[in-house]
Design a protein that fits this description.
homodimer; 7-stranded mixed beta sheet; 16 helices
C-alpha cells in the first residue's frame, strides 16, 4: 500500500524558505567560514558578522537540508558543499542564486503563478528592457555553472577538419562558449553577440582568457543585428528556450544564412525526453520558462528536429553532456 | 566515496519555483480537475480555464516533483494528492499555501534573508498591526492542518477527573483547539482569546460546531487582556514560538495565575530534539521563526522545561503527536 502523507506538500509549500536559507548562507559566506575552521554557531557568527542566534537557526536548517553535518554543536561541510559552496573552491557555484533567485525572478515566479499558467506564458524577462541588469546578473553569476558545459561542447569538436576559423556566439552572455572554442581552436576568431551591457562581462572574461584581437563583439538583439559572416561555426547556447517555435525557426534560418559552406550550428539546450517529465532538470525547466518568458519552453528532441528541418538544416545530432543537465545539438545545413 | 554533486544546491536554489507551482496548481484546482476526470493537458485546461500550454508545463513539473503520475500524456493523482489536494476530500490541505506562502511571508522570507540572519531576527509578522489580514489567512487556512492535532490533544485528556468545566484558549485563531475540548467535555465552556478580526473565524467555526453559549470570546492581545478565570484548563496552541524566553516566561506566569487549583496548562509546539536538527519539520521551524518573527524559535524540550519551571510549573510532560510534527506539553502548577 502506498504511504499517504502530506510531507511532499509541506516541503513544496515551504520551498521559498529553502531558497531563502541558501541565499542567506551564500551571501554571508557561511560555508567558507566553516571551511576556514569556524565550527560552532558562535564562531561562525563572529566570522560572518552575524548574530549567533541567526546562524544557529540557519545552520541547523542547512543541516536538515543536507548541506552540513552537525555533531556536538559543531558543523562541517559535506563533500558536495566543500566543492560547490566554499568560495575559495575553483568549482564554487554559490552565486547562481543571484540570477536564479534574483528579485525580478522571484517576483515573476511567486506574485501570481496562476496567472501565467492561465495565460500560457508570463510577462517575462524576455520582455524587459535590453539593459535590464538581470541579464548582467545572469552573465556574471551563471558562468561557473556554464563553464564546464562550454568546455565539454568545444571538446566535442576537437579534431574536426578543417578547424573552424570564424565563430559566431549568439546571445553570448558571459562569452564562455565562444571562449572555450577559442581555446580549442587557437587560430579561430570569435564574435560575441549580445546587448552591450551584458557584453561587458564577456569582454572581461575574454580579456582574462587573453584572447586579444581574436575576440570581437556585435552589439544588439540577435533578431535585429546583421550577423555578418560567413562563419564556420555558429553557437547558440541556451537561447531558443526563451521563444516560441516560429520565432526559433526564423532565428535558425538567420543562423543558417550566416554559415559558410561546410559550416555547423552548435546549440546547447535543456532537452527533456518526449514524455516531458524526465530527466527531472530539463523537464522542470519548461515551468521555469513558463514563469519567466512569454512563450519559451524546454523543447524535446522532436520539436528541435522539426524546427531545424524547417529552417533548412539536415543531419541533426543530439549529444547529452552528463553530469550537466544540458544537451549539445549539432546541425548542418541541407 | 560520497557522491559530489550540485543537485541539492540546484534543487534548493529553485525552491521558490516549487512553491510557485503548487500555489498555481491549488489556485487553479488542477488536482480537483484531474480527480473529476480531466486527464490530459487539454482537458485540464478546459476545466480550469487555463491555457493548455500553461497546464502542460505545470502538470509536467508536478509530475517531476511527485504530485502526479503521467503515462501516455495522461495525468493522474498519487494517493497522497488524492487525499490532501482534491478540494472535495475531507482531508484537503491545499489552502495552507495561502498562509505559508502569503505575499507577506514571501516578502519577509526572500527579500533580504542575510539581514535577518545577521540581526538574529526579522522585522516580523509579530510586529504587524493586530488587524493584519495575514492572521485571518492563518486562522482560515491552517485550520485543516491543525484540526487533527487539536483533536489528538483533546483526546489525550479523555477521562481526566474532574472533567474541566472552564477552558481558556489563548491566541485561539481558528478556535479549533478550544472547540475540540468542547467536544471532548460536553459540560465545558470555552473562552477563545485573540484579535477581534481573527476571532471572526473562530466564531464561524464554533457556530458550525453548534457550541452556542458554551463558546465565549476575549478580544485583544494575550499580553494585555486580563484572562479572567480561574480556568480548569488553559490552552496555548502554537503561540510560544513567536517570542523570546523572557516573554514566554511572563506569559506562562500569567497563564498559571489564571488556573484554578488542580488546573492544567496544555501547550502545542514544534519541539526539535536537543540536537536541534531532528526531526526535520520541528528543526526547520526555527528558521521559519527567524525569518518571520523578531525573536521566536522552535524550543527544544530543555528550553520549554526551563521556562515552565521559571513560571512556577512542575510536572511537565511531553507527548509527541504523530503523524503531525507537533508535541503536546502538559504542565501543572507547583
Amino acid at each position: 500500500m502506498p504511504e499517504v502523507s502530506p510531507e511532499l506538500l509541506m516541503d513544496t509549500v515551504f520551498g521559498h524558505f529553502s531558497t531563502s536559507a541558501i541565499k542567506a548562507a551564500i551571501e554571508l559566506d557561511v560555508f567558507t567560514a566553516i571551511a576556514e575552521g569556524a565550527a560552532d554557531a558562535a564562531a561562525i557568527g563572529k566570522r560572518t558578522g552575524a548574530a549567533e542566534r541567526g546562524i544557529q537557526a540557519l545552520a541547523d536548517y542547512l543541516t536538515v537540508m543536507g548541506f552540513l553535518e552537525k555533531a556536538d554543536g559543531h558543523y562541517r561541510l559535506t563533500p558536495s558543499s566543500a566543492v560547490f559552496l566554499d568560495r575559495r573552491s575553483p568549482a564554487f557555484l554559490g552565486d547562481i542564486h543571484r540570477f536564479l533567485a534574483a528579485p525580478e525572478i522571484v517576483q515573476l515566479t511567486l506574485s501570481d503563478p496562476a496567472a501565467f499558467v492561465r495565460n500560457g506564458g508570463s510577462i517575462g524577462l524576455a520582455n524587459m528592457a535590453p539593459d535590464d541588469p538581470v541579464w548582467v546578473e545572469f552573465a556574471r553569476h551563471m558562468a561557473p555553472f556554464m563553464g564546464p558545459v562550454a568546455q565539454a561542447i568545444a571538446a566535442h569538436f576537437a579534431g574536426v577538419t578543417p578547424a573552424p576559423r570564424r565563430i559566431l556566439d549568439i546571445a553570448a552572455g558571459h562569452g564562455l562558449f565562444g571562449i572555450a572554442f577559442a581555446h580549442q581552436f587557437p587560430e579561430a576568431e570569435v564574435t560575441a553577440l549580445d546587448w552591450d551591457n551584458v557584453l561587458d562581462v564577456a569582454r572581461e572574461n575574454a580579456a582574462a582568457a587573453k584572447l586579444g584581437a581574436r575576440f570581437k563583439t556585435l552589439t544588439g538583439s540577435a533578431f535585429d543585428v546583421a550577423f555578418g559572416g560567413p562563419y564556420d561555426m555558429v553557437l547558440m547556447p541556451n537561447f531558443l528556450h526563451h521563444f516560441d517555435e516560429a520565432t526559433c525557426v526564423s532565428l535558425l534560418r538567420k543562423a543558417r544564412a550566416a554559415l559558410a559552406p561546410g559550416g555547423r550550428l552548435a546549440i546547447s539546450e535543456f532537452v527533456p525526453n518526449e514524455d516531458r517529465v524526465s530527466p527531472p532538470r530539463p523537464a522542470m525547466f519548461a515551468y521555469i520558462m513558463l514563469a519567466t518568458t512569454q512563450s519559451g519552453t524546454a523543447f524535446p528532441a522532436s520539436a528541435l528536429e522539426r524546427m531545424l528541418r524547417e529552417a533548412g538544416f539536415r543531419q541533426t545530432k543530439f549529444v547529452p553532456l552528463p553530469p550537466s543537465p544540458q544537451t549539445l545539438i549539432v546541425a548542418e545545413p541541407a
